[in-house]
Structures are given as C-alpha cells and as structure tokens.
C-alpha cells in the first residue's frame, strides 16, 4: 500500500513540475549525497494538486559538464482523494524510459515512497523526469466528468537525492574558464594556489598580480591566494581541495616537463592545462622566454576579459597588446563626461528588455568624484509602456536613485523617448542603482538608452576606508591603477599570499585589472602605495605621517598627524590586536598609503583573508582597522581629516565650502564686518573733513 501511495505522490509531484518546467543543476559539492527539495525544481512551489488521467509532470534535471551523478532517487510525500478509482497508477519515466509504476489506494490516502532512478551513472547533460497519472479500470464505468480524483504532492517534503562526482574536464577551453572558477567556489570562496618557478623578482610578482586580478574579475567569488614555490613537496591547505584552478608562472625554461607544450614557446603565452598531480584540477600557466614576457602574458589575460581565443593555448601578439591598451578601465562603469549605453553596461540580453513593473539600471562609478550642486546625470531613455488596463489614466513612473526619491511622471502607452536627470549628489562612488517603479503598467527599457555623467573633479575628504573598500580610492585614482605600487616588505610566501589576496579584492572593488600597478620589494618614494608586511619589517619612518604608532604589545595614537609638542601621543592601548589596516599620508608629499601589517609572518596570510571576508571588509571605515581575537576587524577614525585634490584650482575652494558649510557663515560674517568697517572708516573720514572745512 505504501508503494501505491508513493506512486500517486510521485505522479502528482511531476505533474506539478510539468506545469512549470524548471532546470535542476547538479550541485558542485563533492564527497556526500545531495538532497534537493522538489520545490527547488518547481520554482519554489510548495504544494501541487494533480487530477488523475489529465496531467503529466516533467522536470529537467541538469548535470554540469564535468560532473556525473550516482544513486539518484526520488522520495515523494503525498495525499490522495477518497474517490481515487481502484487500480489507478503513477508511471515514472526517466529520459523517456519507464522505470517504475505504483498503484494508488484511496483507503490509505496519506503516504510516501521512494523510487530509484535506475542504477546507471548519469553523465553530464539534461534529463527529463516524467510522471503520468493513469486512472484505474473502474474509471471507464464512471460518467464522463463526474470523477474528482486528485492527488496532492507536498513539494517541500519531497526530495531528489543523488551523489555528485566530479570528473576531469575532457576539453579545456578559455571560454569555459568563468564556469570553472565559479564551480570551483561553491561557497563563494576560490582557493587559488599560485606557484612560482625560477627567481621570484618584482616583475614576476607584478605578473602574479595581473593573473590574480584577471581571475578575480571573472568570478564573483573571493580569491584566497596561497603563494608557493614550485615544485611543491607537500600539499598546502589552500590546494588540498579537488575542486580547483591553480596558477603557475615562470619562464618556459623553468617550467616542469609535464607542462611543456609540444610546440616550443617563443613569446608571451597563456596555457590552460590539466593538473598532473590532480586529475580534477586545471592549471593556468603564464610563461614566456623571460620574465618580461611572462608579465606581458598576464597583462593580456587580465585586460582582454571578453576576447580570449578559442582553445587552451594563447600566444599573445602585438594586436592583443594594442587591444589591451584600449580596455584598461572597468567594463561596467560610467565615467565623468562620457555617454554610455545600457547595452554597454548590461549587455543586449539585459532583463530590462522584457516588460516589468520595476526596472533597475545598475552601474559602477569611480570614487573621489566631485561636481557642483547643479550637476546632473542625464538619461535618455527609449521605453515601451504597456498599461495594465485600458482605462484612460496613464501609468505613473517613480524614479529612485540609491533609495532616494527623485521624480515622478506619467508614461505614454507604446514606444516613446524620455529624458530625465538625476542630481549628481544622489550618486555614490561604487555601485549605483536607478530604479523605475511603474504604477498601472509595465515597461521595457531599450538597450540603446544612454546615461551621461557630468564633468567632475577629483576631490575627497580622507582618510576614508569606506571609500577604499567600495571603489579602491584613493589608491585607485585611474581605472588602470597608474601611479600605484604594491610594496612587499618581506620576501616570504606569507607576504606574497597576503598581498595577492588583497590585490584580488582591490581589483574586484575597482572593477579593473589595475594593469598600471607595479610590485616592489623596496620602500616606495613616489605614488600611492598598498604596503604589506609585519610590524618588524616596515620601518617606523613609513608611518611617520600616521596618527597611529604600532608596537608589538599595543598601539599609541595622537590627534594630529605630526608628532610635535602641541600634539603629543595622548592615548595607548594594550589590546591584543594581531593585524592592522591603516590609511594615511605617505612620508613624501602628495600621496596616500594603505598599509596592512600583522604582528608576525605566521599570521599574515590568515589575517589578510579575514580582512577581505565580507564580515570584515563590509564594515571598514575611518583610518584604522585592527583584527580582534575572533578574527574579525574593528575600525574607527583616529586622526584628523585632510583634503585630497588639486589645491591650485578654484574648484578646491568650492569643494572646501561644500564640505564645511560653516565657512559660508564665516565668509558672510567677514564680508558684513568688512563692509561695516569700511562704512565706519569712510564716515569718520568724512566727519573729519567736514570739521576741517568748518574750521576754515
């Protein structure tokens, strides 16, 4: 009897799925069974009712290209109606082949059953799972239309179970790289071993930065980089997972023989190869005849994010370098003074092209931009409006910018052109969202619609780690990362791991490969700097302009960035912080540094990973953050603010008065006082003149 109920339940479940066919993708977790509720296959539908003899249910189960599934089974919980005819059946099919049938019994209305989906291994592909409800022989004696038999399936309690197994990629191709990355990071974290072959100099480390940035921009996952010297004798924690993409860099003469291609390498080359030590992993190799060519290969890979060649070998040519020079900045950004179309921002297949009651236009904007209060973002929109009713009233659109109300106006049914503006003050550095809420209708926004930012100027109030973690500013002033260097104060794997992890996060928030950035082992004397090290490896002179002085057993701070008699060190703490992040001026004038320091080399890699994790990264603010005993960061503002920007321009004074409105009061009071004083002096002189004339 249980089997009968099970069969009916299963039939019901699948019928419901037929009504809303939804693909189910094999999860990328490996090692244990996967259990999916049927509601996940039916677009969240929790319950469905099937009427015997009228419906067939189907759900498409998709398995990823480099996975297979074993021991697949369906467990169904159901409830059948009392008037279900005797002999009614649920027939189950997989890939159009019947694999079982179950009879229903109205005397036992509630039950569950499990059906095995065959003993075979399901390889990559799409598999239709079907259930058909067949009425029993007694149904033919019932008057037409009088039967009301039904079966209700509890989708939330019913489940599809299977065991996924990852298999090697048979065909390696650069076009599949984004998929490889995302499937290697099921929890939003991508462990990334980076192996160096040969002498690790500044050029090779710069190439590693570009390789990491290129991968970071191809996935939404966070990169946890583990630097290694090849060959690696023991597997490190970051490389222990079978899921994986790893990076290998070095001159062709230093690479292992197992990764040498048949055709000799004569120039900058990027290879996608199977990992000889891990059949399930792939290796991205950056190589050339010398270190400079390795850097060229890494830069071309990082910049050409949409034009990678077919196949698994890319010999970088001069035309690739020329194309790279044209694509240094973010691809989904709106820059000051430039007109950009929605096709460029979101692609021709944007969901904005289909009718919705709400439309959201998202774009990224660089940090540190300032414009006058009268400046606006100009939008020219082509929209197709579809009223919900045929009433005379026209749909009303409400424009919101980053959750701030902007305007409201009526739409004309059909296709029409519109122009609207958004105050620049409503926009922020980083991600911006302009939302259109339509009352009484739906709209489609055409991809030819454009938006244009006004002309702006580079001014900001610093330090501000909030701006740093959302846009990379002030380290990233230009999309290419020009005048930026990454200073590795120690030649250790821990130092390189921490720096590359931070650089990958910086590339993601800046939406740019930062191909103008240079790695260095020497303390910089020009430009903006991301400094990585320990308390003992970074000289005190580097933090001479910082209001914080770090020590092994705590820190001291002052209310001025200059240690003079009027501004002594006024506070100290013995807090057991294990790592610090600081934003301050550089020892030399005109630039800014973000310095990341750990108490010792052993904790540097873990501290960097804890910093880029969302729980810490999303809360950065002020000018100082430190890691507490729980591994998360606490941040605050310790020192004074300073103005970033060209002080020799008249816009500096406009910016100054905009961030310090009380200066208007002071200036107005000064003007009134000056005018009063002038009138008073003029009056005194006139009175003295009149007295002199009267004396004559």
Outline:
42% of the residues are buried. Helix 4 (202-216) packs parallel to helix 5 and helix 4 packs across helix 9 (493-510).
What does this structure look like?
The protein is 22% helix and 34% strand. The chain has 696 residues and is α+β, with helices and mostly antiparallel strands. The protein folds into five domains: 2-166, Sandwich (Jelly Rolls), CATH 2.60.120; 174-325, 2-Layer Sandwich (Chitobiase, domain 2), CATH 3.30.379; 354-443, Jelly Rolls; 464-640, 2-Layer Sandwich (Chitobiase, domain 2); 661-696. The strands form nine sheets. It has a seven-stranded mixed beta sheet with strand order 31-30-32-37-36-38-39. Strands 2, 3, 5, 8, 10 and 11 form a six-stranded antiparallel beta sheet that branches. Helix 4 (202-216) links the parallel strand 12 (189-196) and strand 13 (222-229). The longest helix is centred in the C-terminal third of the chain and has 34 residues, at 662-695. The termini are far apart.
User: What is the typical, i.e. mean, pLDDT?
Assistant: 82
> Care to count the β-strands?
40
CATH architectural designation of the largest domain: 2-Layer Sandwich
Strand content: 25-35%
Going across the biggest sheet, name each strand in turn: 31-30-32-37-36-38-39
> Alpha-carbon distance between the termini?
133 Å
Number of helices: 13
Under CATH at level 1, the class of the largest domain stands as Alpha Beta
Output the structural class: alpha+beta
Main sheet properties: 7 strands, mixed
Determine the CATH topology of the largest domain. Chitobiase, domain 2
Number of domains as seen in the coordinates: 5
The coarse silhouette is: globular
- State the low-pLDDT regions, or none: 1-29, 233-241, 560-565
- Indicate the radius of gyration in whole angstroms: 33 Å
Helix content: 10-25%
For the record, what is the CATH homologous superfamily label of the largest domain? Chitobiase/beta-hexosaminidase domain 2-like
């Amino acid at each position: 009897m249980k089997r009968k109920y099970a069969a009916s339940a299963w039939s019901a479940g699948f019928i419901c799925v037929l009504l809303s066919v939804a693909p189910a993708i094999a999860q990328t977790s490996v090692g244990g069974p996967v259990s999916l509720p049927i509601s996940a296959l039916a677009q969240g539908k929790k319950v469905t009712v099937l009427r015997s003899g009228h419906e067939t249910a189907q759900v498409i189960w998709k398995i990823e290209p480099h996975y297979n599934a074993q021991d697949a089974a369906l467990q169904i919980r159901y409830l059948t109606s009392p008037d279900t005819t005797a002999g009614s059946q649920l027939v189950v099919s997989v890939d159009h082949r019947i694999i079982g049938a179950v009879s229903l019994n109205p005397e036992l209305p509630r039950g569950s059953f499990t059906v095995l989906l065959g003993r075979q291994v399901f390889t990559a592909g799409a598999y239709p799972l079907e259930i058909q409800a067949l009425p029993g022989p007694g149904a033919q004696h019932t008057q037409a239309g009088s039967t009301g038999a039904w079966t209700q399936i509890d989708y939330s309690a019913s489940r599809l179970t299977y065991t996924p197994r990852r298999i090697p990629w048979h065909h390696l191709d650069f076009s599949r790289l984004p998929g490889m990355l995302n499937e290697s990071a099921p929890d939003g974290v991508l462990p990334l071993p980076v192996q160096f072959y040969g002498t690790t100099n500044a050029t090779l480390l710069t190439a590693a930065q570009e390789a990491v940035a290129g991968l970071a921009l191809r996935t939404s996952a966070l990169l946890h980089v583990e630097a290694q010297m090849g060959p690696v004798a023991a597997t490190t924690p970051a490389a222990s997972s079978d899921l994986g993409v790893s990076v290998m860099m070095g001159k062709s003469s230093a690479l292992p023989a197992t990764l040498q291609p048949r055709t000799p390498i004569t120039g900058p080359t990027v290879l996608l190869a199977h990992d000889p030590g891990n059949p399930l992993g792939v290796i991205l190799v950056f190589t050339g005849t010398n270190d400079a060519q390795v850097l060229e290969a890494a830069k071309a890979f990082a910049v050409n994010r949409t034009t990678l060649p077919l196949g698994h070998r890319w010999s970088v040519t001069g035309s690739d370098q020329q194309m790279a020079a044209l694509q240094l900045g973010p691809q989904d950004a709106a820059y000051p003074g430039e007109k950009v179309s929605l096709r460029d921002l979101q692609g021709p297949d944007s969901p904005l092209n289909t009718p919705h009651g709400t439309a959201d236009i998202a774009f990224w904007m660089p940090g540190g931009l300032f414009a006058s209060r009268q400046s606006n973002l100009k939008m020219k929109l082509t929209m197709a409006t579809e009223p919900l009713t045929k009433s005379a009233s026209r749909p009303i659109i409400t424009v919101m910018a980053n959750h701030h109300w902007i305007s409201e106006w009526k739409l004309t049914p059909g296709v029409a052109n519109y122009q609207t503006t958004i105050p620049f003050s409503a926009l922020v550095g980083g991600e911006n969202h302009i939302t259109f809420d339509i009352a009484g209708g739906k709209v489609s926004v055409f991809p030819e619609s454009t938006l244009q930012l006004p002309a702006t100027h580079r001014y900001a109030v610093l330090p501000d780690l909030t701006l740093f973690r959302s846009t990379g500013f002030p380290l990233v002033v230009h999309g290419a990362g020009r005048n930026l260097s990454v200073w590795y104060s120690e030649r250790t794997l821990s130092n390189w791991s921490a720096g590359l992890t931070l650089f990958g996060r910086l590339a993601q928030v800046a939406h740019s490969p930062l191909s103008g950035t240079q790695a260095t082992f020497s303390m910089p004397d020009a430009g903006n700097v991301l400094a990585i090290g320990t308390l003992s490896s970074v000289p005190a002179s580097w933090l001479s302009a910082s209001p914080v002085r770090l020590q092994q057993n705590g820190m001291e701070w002052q209310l001025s960035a200059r240690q003079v008699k009027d501004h002594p060190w006024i506070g100290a703490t013995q807090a057991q912080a294990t790592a610090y992040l600081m934003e301050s001026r550089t020892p030399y004038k005109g630039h800014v540094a973000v310095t990341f320091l750990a108490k010792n080399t052993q904790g540097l890699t873990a501290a960097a990973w804890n910093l880029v994790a969302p729980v810490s990264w999303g809360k950065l603010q002020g000018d100082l953050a430190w890691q507490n005993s729980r591994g998360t960061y606490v941040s605050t503002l310790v020192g004074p603010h300073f103005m970033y920007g060209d002080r020799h321009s008249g816009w500096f004074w406009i910016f100054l008065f905009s961030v310090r409105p009380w200066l208007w009061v002071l200036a107005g009071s000064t003007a009134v006082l000056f005018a009063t004083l002038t009138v008073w002096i003029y009056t005194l002189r006139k009175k003295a003149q009149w007295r002199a004339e009267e004396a004559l």
